[in-house]
Amino acid sequence: MLEGVLGVSIAGLSGKKFSVLEAIDRFGVVTTNQLGHYLSDVNASTIYRARKRSLSLGYIHERIYGMRKLVAITDSGAEFIGRNLKGVNLTNNDMYHQLISNQVLLSFLDDYRNDDVSFQTERDIIREEQISLSKADLSKPNKIKNLWKEVPDIVLTIDGKVIAIEVEISRKTNKRIEQKLKKYKSQKRYDSVFYICGNEDIRRAVENINNNLNAGISFLMLHEVINPEEV
């Protein structure tokens, strides 16, 4: 949206305030700490005012999460941003996974801040997949609803290398793991695929299937990337 880039006021969200809402939409749900970390070049008071304005307009909603505060895009906010995505329910079962994925992404952005790096969140990837779907695919029942099962949690592009990242903090069925690894093995989109595993049981399960398929997956443990207790 050019209005945000040019600093023109849109529904009371001008310039950097609009960029705050765009960031929330990209993540879907994010803690205020994560939002401030990501928008480190934006003054904290600007982020706060943008949140309050977006809240009053119904573009975001918030709730307390332990010692943190969660911020999530609403259907109205997502419609306003205009990327053809839905809002995020602050009580959904996948929320902890999303917050962990956010932290993983922020950690990698910190590690590679001196490199040529760009990224896609899961919502960015789903948006891209929606655009690329054929009419036949779009007509399939639940195709769009289930896209999140088919895409990575994060895509990082570092110095031209495209890396898919899966954050696994709960045990999936072998069938589901195998389906996803087969897809990664057959695709040519990513230069490498990393599974970041929450514990050794998860790693062993994915690694065994990876070895059987010779899918070429690389592995990291979650604690090697972030401190989950900080999320």
Describe what you observe in this structure.
With 231 residues, the protein is an alpha/beta fold. The chain has two domains: 1-92, Arc Repressor Mutant, subunit A, CATH 1.10.10; 93-231, no CATH class. Helices cover 47% and strands 19% of the residues. The chain is built from eleven helices and eight strands. The strands form two sheets. Strands 4-5-6-7-8 form a five-stranded mixed beta sheet. Helix 9 packs across helix 10 (200-213). Residues 1-8 have low confidence and may be disordered.
List the helices and strands and how they pair.
Elements: H1 2-6, H2 15-27, E1 29-31, H3 32-38, H4 44-56, E2 60-65, E3 68-73, H5 75-81, H6 95-111, E4 117-121, H7 122-132, H8 135-138, E5 154-158, E6 161-168, H9 174-186, E7 192-197, H10 200-213, E8 218-221, H11 222-225
Parallel strand pairs: 6-7, 7-8
Antiparallel strand pairs: 1-3, 2-3, 4-5, 5-6
